[in-house]
Amino acid sequence: MALLCVSFLTPTSSSAADEALDETADLAAEFAAAQGVSVADVDCQTSENGTRALCATSAGQPLKELASYSIERDLDNAAVDENGVARTIPTGCTRTKVVGTRFSACQIVEWTVIFRDKNERGMWLVTGGAAGSLRNTVWVRNGSTEIDFEGTVKVTSAWGTALGATMTLRSKCLLSCRNFMPVGHAKTLYDDVGITKSQTFNPNPSGKEPWITNPYWGLTIYKASYGGTEMIAFWFDVRCDYAAAPLSGKGCVIPDFLAELVIFTSAYPTYAAHVRKAQKTGLPSRLRRMYDETQKKANRDRACPASLPKKTGYSCDEYPFASTWQGAKTGGGLVRVPAGCFYEEIERSGSVGYSRCAIVGDENSAGGWDYQSFLQTNRVVADEWFTVKVI
């Protein structure tokens, strides 16, 4: 959700007031530009007596509008290490870039407020302003339904009648908010002031079906006789489940970040080589999990039939994996066999079809266990997409 400004003031309805608001909005936009803020919206309201106005500008893009900005992974600063211990805030998050992993995400939205007063001749004067940023960060993990989230507001510029206003950072929740108790903290607004507030929220789901919750942070700036405006950092979808098929245990993930299976050439040279060759022929790196034992067996039987010749110490490997909808039977298409795969070479290309290759048997077994562990740790549910990468 993009930054949203909601005024608590009662607007006047006269045409003169409307013109004044238009002029104030223009000046607010100019002030925002001077602060380096790309203005997406300007919201102005006047006080009840029409002599004061408070304007707010907002910037940022909704999480779902992926074409509007980039999503990047930050694997060096993942939210949890291999033992599930919480780690650092993802680096590099900005108002145009959501940065994160399956277990953490953050974005910064920027805000600007303008304070205006009408003089005795009825002219609007800009008497103060402030600009800053609001960051929302979320951490989740496999094995727990606790959600850690943190809000940070930073004032980068403040002057005039904006000084002395009260700014309050408060936690909020949009969906599936059982057990949620809002917390907040207030400070007097002045240049270079900041607030950071953290909270842990455990919805404790009881059913097995996955569900979405959305904890986030709101910033309110208020000053007597001007009123106030609320700016809301957009929220991340957090999906939690308790043993949703085919998973076990409980946990939460951020589903907008697809899980990524990394196959290391150093650990599995023949397995990695096959997947790399298969992808180079055009087979997809983005797969969708299937949970149907009958169809998985049909995929395996088609890709690696018992009639294939045998090689001591090796076993047949298929790509895309049999437990995905892109598998040999459910995905359709014809077989291809890359060079160096023991079986008779068959050259084909394109995104439809499947590849087979004889790889070291121990690698095939260990790689399969790693794959199943990956699906569980990242809580990849049935019909969910994930990606495969060889390094």
Count of discrete alpha- or pi-helical segments spanning 4 or more residues: 4
Q: How much strand?
A: 35-45%
So what's the overall shape?
Answer: elongated
Instruction: Decide which structural class fits the backbone.
Output: alpha+beta
| Uncertain residue ranges | 1-18, 59-87
**Helix-strand pattern, N to C?**
EHEEEEEEEEEEEEEEEEHEHEEEHE
Average pLDDT across residues?
A: 80
End-to-end Cα distance, whole Å, is 35 Å
User: Describe the biggest sheet?
Assistant: 8 strands, mixed
Our Rg estimate from Cα atoms comes to: 27 Å
Number of beta-strand segments:
22
Residue share in helix: 10-25%
Describe this structure in words.
With 391 residues, the chain is α+β, with helices and mostly antiparallel strands. It has helices spanning 15-34, 269-280, 293-303, 361-377; strands at residues 4-7, 41-46, 52-58, 70-73, 97-100, 104-118, 124-139, 147-160, 166-173, 184-188, 194-201, 211-213, 215-223, 227-232, 238-242, 250-253, 259-263, 286-288, 314-319, 335-336, 354-360, 385-390. Strand 6 (104-118) and strand 7 (124-139) form a beta hairpin. The radius of gyration is 27 Å and the shape is elongated.
Could you give a quick summary of the protein structure above?
The protein has helices at residues 15-34, 269-280, 293-303, 361-377; strands spanning 4-7, 41-46, 52-58, 70-73, 97-100, 104-118, 124-139, 147-160, 166-173, 184-188, 194-201, 211-213, 215-223, 227-232, 238-242, 250-253, 259-263, 286-288, 314-319, 335-336, 354-360, 385-390. The chain is α+β, with helices and mostly antiparallel strands and 391 residues long. Strand 2 (41-46) and strand 3 form a beta hairpin.
